[in-house]
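For the sake of clarity, the format in which proteins appear in this thesis is described at this point. The record quoted next illustrates the convention:

___
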Amino acid sequence: MNPFYGEIVGTAILILLGDGVVANVALDKTKAEAADWNVICLGWGMAVFVSVFSVAAFSGAHLNPAVTLGLAIAGKFSWADVPIYFVGQFVGAAVGAVLVWMFYHPHFAATADKDAKLAVFCTAPALRHRASNFLSESIGTSMLVFAVLMLALPDFGLGALDALPVGLLVLAIGLSLGGTTGYAINPARDLAPRLMHALLPIPGGKRNSDWNYAWIPAIAPFVGACIAAALYLFLGGEIQIDLPSVSSWL
């Protein structure tokens, strides 16, 4: 498996398990119906753990455009490969969202709450305040990317042994910082499934895909990644020289 396909598969697993736990909690007549926020945070943490160790050997398991950008700014990843990884991540997130839609199809039909159906695919703020929501997503992503930079291998990205720490990191972010916006902290995780919500026929009907808010989880994580990379370099992080490129593997 080359890195491009690794990012597709890894991000699809991330969204299948991550959006899957949201569906399990939010949709009607599931075994986990009306479970609490802790279940969602734990599910997302384990989704990151499984997806990272599944494809770390193939692509470094970025699975997040903000992580890819942060690694590139910090000199731990080749800029030539950033577009390839971005495309793989967005394609994988869309595939994962479709899989969740297929898996929970009868439960979408059994659910009258259209907001709950949208929540399966993408995030929304608890209180709508653009500046605060943008700050929340930026800070949450900064925490993610800074910690990843401290774990990242010098020549590629995350190693398989780093899967558990990253999963625990996402669990911690969700528990401590996720209650304001739902902690997208990943542009692909939010934007591609939101697009699938807009395109797919949702059983029992659906609401609009909240595009007025969509720009915040799409842009704020990139800002957070830049801040994290700048902090990493300010504290003395080393830039790698002659980074390998995976572009020729495609």
